[in-house]
Design brief:
By secondary structure, this protein is an alpha/beta fold. The protein has helices at about 5-25, 40-50, 55-75, 85-130, 160, 165-180, 185-210, 240-250, 280-290, 360-365, 410-415, 435-450, 500, 505-530; strands spanning about 220-225, 260-265, 270-275, 300-310, 320, 330-340, 345-350, 400, 420-425, 455-460, 465-470, 475, 485-490. It is about 45% helix and about 15% strand. Strand 8 (about 400), helix 11 (about 410-415) and strand 9 form a beta-alpha-beta unit.
Length: about 525
């Protein structure tokens, strides 16, 4: 065991976990490192636990905060390109939340010992990740189960558990390894065997699922457009008409009479369309003219969309006043489907990026909205809709998933439960420059394909556009900063996976159980003070 009386040893252990987590993380990480990446952090906590000094709890907080801050920074520093304020929240605030969860585990262990203590660690962490899916500071980007995204063959069983199963797997393995190092002889050997078995059994299950899963043959031909338009210097200041013509020309180069769907990226129509003009806007009419030649074709595109509030109409929570006159309006990051046979359909992005597309806790931080850069091109908090929309068609029921929404497994499940048999991801990852950000984002989409057993067509403004099959395998991935168009037949699937039907059961269970652990820990602290 490392010496206990020198802070440098605790800092070394804290940073070791951060570096191992970063080295394991997508897109180019070595995912098996996750099975031991948290061991140094557990060793550091154990040193503090055994010191039994009055000031050690505050020191644990400091050392663990160093660890989680380093992990968050190493994996998500690229957010700076889009929003310095967003990076502050994603790195420092998110690390603070992780540290609070780890500190809570330490308190529970101090009150109830190793058995309940280490069970509570996995429970608290899973409850934190579940809670982190749906509040003002939602940021599930670094949920531990996402760490296997680039090694998707290892987690084919996510179709039952979602990423929460991966989080439980990681903590269980690290805790077993930690306990194996604390013992000698037969106990050590048995714990190491259990550790190896805990790694091996899910892997065996995953590869059995992988080898036996066969997609139902219901192919449809899809075209994905990557226009490669600079979001900072061209997209929102250049000609919107020229950008549309570029995308039409790209799709025209590969489209055929068999093509059923053309997909363009997030805010592909950046100029803005008002609700009253959605059927008559010149760009909408241009798309309708284009698809007339292909009677069965549907055109999916992202756009900036605005809704005007008429006098006396109730204002939404995100309504904003006109700068140059009376009245209010809402701005949306939206998706639109245009076809020859159906009315225009719309979906408004609902999972917004905190500090970028919406200001968390507006009563406290509303004055900071002017410092945000919206990933869709509109500053300030955007409007949302309560339920996701599914774009209908003869056979394709498309889930129009916009950018950040694709990080939420159970939210994507809402599309699937509403009938979506194909996932269409529209994103603009050009805000992050040529960094790990857009590569991580693409890899996360593989987990959605596995969870819901849905094929995915992914259209990015610039790299990476691709197709993903129902096993999470990527096809025809495009390069960074190049215009591109790709075409492929994808299979539709109308069957619901266990996870699609039931959602985050593990997360909900952990959320309830964490309330119990938290309550008994607080009661134990109160009784101890009374005894003193």
């Amino acid at each position: 065991m490392l010496p206990e009386d020198k802070p440098i040893h605790k800092i070394t252990l804290a940073l070791a976990s951060a570096i191992l987590l970063w080295a394991a993380w997508p897109a180019n990480g070595l995912a098996p490192l996750l099975f031991l990446a948290l061991l140094p952090l557990l060793l550091m906590e154990d040193i503090v636990y055994r010191q039994k000094k009055n000031n050690v709890k505050s020191k644990l907080f400091i050392f663990s905060y160093i660890s989680f801050t380093a992990f968050n920074f190493l994996t998500t520093w690229w957010i700076w390109y889009a929003s310095p304020f967003g990076m502050f929240g994603a790195v420092f605030a998110n690390a603070l939340l992780m540290t609070a969860v780890f500190q809570l585990f330490h308190l529970t262990r101090c009150k109830f010992g190793n058995g309940i203590g280490y069970i509570s660690l996995a429970v608290y962490w899973m409850a934190f990740e579940y809670f982190h899916m749906d509040w003002d500071l939602t940021w599930p980007w670094l949920n531990l189960g996402n760490g296997f995204a680039a090694w998707a063959d290892m987690v084919q069983w996510y179709e039952f558990t979602g990423t929460q199963g991966g989080t439980l797997w990681i903590w269980t393995c690290n805790i077993l390894l930690f306990h194996a190092l604390r013992y000698t002889g037969t106990v050590k050997r048995n714990l190491l065997l259990l550790y190896i078995g805990t790694i091996a059994l899910p892997l065996v299950i995953s590869y059995l699922i992988l080898s036996n899963y066969e997609e139902a043959q219901h192919p449809v031909e899809i075209v994905v457009v990557q226009p490669n338009i600079d979001p900072y210097n061209e997209k929102f200041s250049g000609s919107s008409d020229e950008q549309l013509e570029k995308m039409i020309a790209l799709s025209q180069s590969v489209i055929s009479k068999k093509t059923r769907l053309v997909i363009c990226p997030e805010t592909a129509l950046p100029g803005g369309i008002w609700s009253e003009d959605v059927n008559t806007h010149p760009q909408v009419l241009r798309i309708k003219e284009y698809i007339k030649t292909y009677p069965d074709l549907r055109y999916l595109t992202g756009l900036s969309y605005y809704k005007f509030f008429h006098p006396g109409e109730p204002l939404s929570a995100t309504a904003r006043a006109f700068r140059d006159g009376p009245g209010h309006f809402d701005a949306f990051n939206a998706a639109m489907q245009i076809s020859n046979t159906r009315p225009i359909e719309l979906h408004f992005k609902s999972k917004l990026v905190p500090g970028v597309e919406k200001m968390p806790f507006p009563v406290l931080f509303g004055y900071l909205e002017n410092f945000a850069i919206d990933l869709g091109g509109t500053t300030g908090s955007l409007g949302t809709q309560e339920w996701p929309s599914v774009f209908k068609g003869d056979s394709i029921q498309a889930a129009p998933v916009i950018c950040y929404e694709s990080v939420y497994g159970d939210y994507v499940g809402d599309y699937v439960r509403r009938g979506a048999n194909l996932i269409c991801i529209m994103t603009n990852d050009g805000w992050w420059s040529d960094t790990p950000g857009y590569r991580q984002h693409c890899q996360y989409a593989r987990l959605r394909a596995i969870e819901h057993r849905r094929s995915i067509a992914r259209s990015a403004n610039t790299g990476i556009s691709c197709f993903i099959d129902q096993k999470g395998k990527i096809y025809d991935a495009t390069g960074w900063w190049v215009p591109a168009v790709i075409k492929k037949e994808l299979n539709l699937n109308n069957q619901l996976s266990f996870y699609s039907r039931n959602g985050d059961i593990l997360g909900k269970t952990a959320y309830i159980a964490s309330g119990f652990f938290l309550a008994v820990t607080c009661l134990a602290m109160v009784f101890r003070r009374k005894r003193k």
